[in-house]
Amino acid sequence: QKEVEQDPGPLSVPEGAIVSLNCTYSNSAFQYFMWYRQYSRKGPELLMYTYSSGNKEDGRFTAQVDKSSKYISLFIRDSQPSDSATYLCAMSGITGGFKTIFGAGTRLFVKA
Amino acid sequence: EAGVAQSPRYKIIEKRQSVAFWCNPISGHATLYWYQQILGQGPKLLIQFQNNGVVDDSQLPKDRFSAERLKGVDSTLKIQPAKLEDSAVYLCASNRDGDNSPLHFGNGTRLTVT
Lengths: 112, 114
What we know:
Chain A has 112 residues and is mainly beta. Chain A contains no helices and 11 strands.
């Protein structure tokens, strides 16, 4: 079993749709949860960063962490064609020396 | 602030040849990472440096991969000899102290081994 599981997609939605991206994990020691966005032929860039359980909102993006279920989500409201990218979940914890473990990434296409 | 710089952007080599990648992290970032990202997969950590010392190289194939970070700034990653399965994007990342602060990535070097 992988430490972090993420559906690779692809996920195709029309412009303006609400997008839900998810990851599950097995290591209960993870405390820091991140979402990175990666455009084609670019490096990952940090989108959202949360600590422990709860919600965090930034513009059209909302990150949710449910540590009891070992489940994290990223919601994108009013999706735009410019949101078309691969979204990588990532997580780390102090017991792992803050080693960041990535999911496989979900490819998202937003159609105009 | 300037981002993480990597070169070259692309490299095509034949199997059994050698190749080297270069990375310059964000100024002031003590910790530098090399990740391998195979097509369709997430980045996998190869090696982590804190200043010029190795913190974690447990997933580095040491029979063919080597890395160094002289003077605690720039770093090079070398593969010798390359195998077909080494075809991937090699990403360099940095953060301030190797703690819980997020990683800043370069745009990577895309390696194709034929």
